[in-house]
């Protein structure tokens, strides 16, 4: 097989058929080469492949554990990094595991988890039916169904965690929560220090976390600036059932800062 002789649409079809629909006899090395060639030939179409990819190919496979994503993601084979869909599922799995291991009580919303899981299953079903009916001609509707399924999976995870999520927060060197919210600026992400507990209050300063890879060094560098980075558990609202959840459904609703949180780590417990 001479990959360099294929057109961009052929490369795309080859990669998706080989992995997503299992309709090719290509081995892993050939598939990896096809995806790499696609990425080099047309980054836009490669992005379409990443969006089109989902963990499973049929509705009954939709409940495959997200922990298996690294071994099933074709983008991982070609680039060494998971695609966005697999990253989202892996993050939800890690959050569920962290909540289960935490000694602080979480009361799961079992009914909510079942409801949102069912919504995700229906999205997988619609995507599968579209693939069987129109193949790649229905790419956009298949992509949309996958995106919505991922959103519903995340809401199901939140329900299992009792509609809570863990966020980073900053503390002073005495372990007191500091009024600050994490914002994206033109220079990257940074902590905006607030004049009051109102998340919309005036910004009076900025704190940039250390980029050191070693946790102990990063913590020491942050402490030199007067802060520790810790973790808090925040309540998030459940979207209204029966409606299509917004893009930011499941996000914290406190504007980025609140003292009505459960402090999991105020920085002091990180001391060696």
Tell me about this structure.
- The chain is of the alpha+beta class.
- It has helices at 8-19, 28-41, 43-52, 69-72, 74-79, 84-101, 110-134, 139-160, 215-224; strands at 164-171, 180-185, 188-194, 203-207, 228-235, 262-265.
- The protein has a three-stranded antiparallel sheet.
- It starts with 7 loop residues before the first helix and ends in a 7-residue tail after the last strand.
- Residues 17-25 and 48-71 have low confidence and may be disordered.
Topology:
Blueprint: H1 8-19, H2 28-41, H3 43-52, H4 69-72, H5 74-79, H6 84-101, H7 110-134, H8 139-160, E1 164-171, E2 180-185, E3 188-194, E4 203-207, H9 215-224, E5 228-235, E6 262-265
Antiparallel strand pairs: 1-5, 2-3, 3-4, 5-6
Helix content: 40-55%
Rg is 22 Å
Terminal Cα span:
56 Å
Topology order in helix (H) and strand (E) letters? HHHHHHHHEEEEHEE
Low-confidence stretches: 17-25, 48-71
Label the structural class. alpha+beta
Count of alpha and pi helical runs: 9
Task: State the total count of DSSP E strands.
Answer: 6
Mean pLDDT: 75
Largest sheet: 3 strands, antiparallel
Side-by-side strand order of the widest sheet: 1-5-6
Strand content: 5-15%
Principal-axes geometry comes out as globular
> How many structural domains are formed by the residues?
3
Structure described in brief:
The protein has 272 residues and is of the alpha+beta class.
Main traits of this protein?
272 residues; alpha+beta; 3 domains; three-stranded antiparallel sheet; 9 helices; globular
